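Why do we care about 3D structure at all? Because function follows from shape, and shape follows, mostly, from sequence. That is the central idea of this module. The next example makes it concrete: a single protein chain, its amino acid sequence, and then its structure expressed as tokens.
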Amino acid sequence: MTVPPVATEPFHIMTKPIGPICNLNCSYCFYLRKEKYFPQHHRAADFRMDDATLRTYIRNYIAAQPGAEVSFAWQGGEPTLLGLDFFKRVVEYQRQFLPPGKRIHNALQTNGTLLNDAWCRFFAEQRFLIGLSLDGPRELHDRYRVTRGGKPTFDEVMRGLQLLKTHRAEFNTLTVVHRDLAHHPREVYEFLRAQGSGFMQFIPLVERVATGTKELVGPAPLKIWVPQSEVAPWSVEPLQFGLFLSDIFDQWVRRDVGRVYVQTFDVQLGIWAGQGSGLCVFSETCGNALAMEHTGDVYACDHFVFPQFRLGNIHDTPLKDLVESPAQRKFGRDKRDTLPAYCRRCDVRFACNGECPKNRFAITPDGEPGLNYLCPGYKHFLHHIRPAMQTMAQLLRQGRAPAEIMQILAWREGRLSHPPRPLEAPPPRLAPQGVGRNDRCPCGSGRKFKKCCGNAAAISTRGAARELEAAET
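And the structure:
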């Protein structure tokens, strides 16, 4: 048997073993509409991944990964519709094809309504990480997450969550930030925190429906032109999403750093600390996060499962060749190369990089197309978190825990009776090649290099606190 070739660098595939088939009918779900791309399928059972495709995929995916960690992600539709025996075969094939020195991780995204003791026991025993879709408290969750008969699902999801906790299965929560939910940041965060969610993902809902006239949105000087009739009524408003993230950040940074992990905040800390983005939407380029349908067809991205972005099929082409194909490499570079000039000169571009290309349908204030619909929100959020991120990044560089920022803030706000350990003075840095002392600092602060990373002045705990306070006022 020929050994599949190994990819040059790690890649990730969002696997859809049951395609778009789901037991719910969430109003905002973009994937339910994918059924039309499979006219040869006439019933739900036709969307089930067959055993030959499952074996081929698992063998190829493990062999193609260049590193020791191999992470599988199972999604839908609703993957639990496949039944528990399907995933028992998944584990069996993974063990069969796993070579010495590699480790397998499984993540499964579910709406939670079909979970029972058997499922949760299996997840705990096999160490599956479960991503549970939960849109906050009852009223907000049930606004769009309903059954095919239009009935609410909150109680069923909470029952599934309790079973996961009872069996000690590892889980995180995925919350879709729709237009109504975005106006309740603290309520949503406190609810998820109370349910024991130690890792939260907040996914902005941006769905387009039809072309029409454009209108200005956002505050000055961030006003952008958006084709409003293209945006579904449940899509989050641009600035409101930034306010939503900022409000939750203010709660998190004061009491939950190191205790609760919010994906966007953790990724941003990595970026501000100079470690790069661990999430494709904030990376300069993309292309290493693909999607595979139940048929074995591989697509450029989970948000681009359209015929024009089909790369090929795993039964015909090794995964390495699909991932490293010229079409996919161009797809990844286009994320950087198609940025409008407005983005390229933005002071927080390094932390955003235009976010996901699927949302780039707005027009810049100077009339150039290709701006991200969420731009006003991300600009507000990234400027809002800058002082705290710079302080936490400095703590990391000094070998200290970012969670110490909670003490810094508590001291500044009078909630701590004794001053925390001061931040050490950072040594002056030499300007990187091509950067002059009067040029903008490459760290993204927006200041001149000589007044930022090239400044040898000590940054005291009080100084950091004053900077945080100034940013908030």
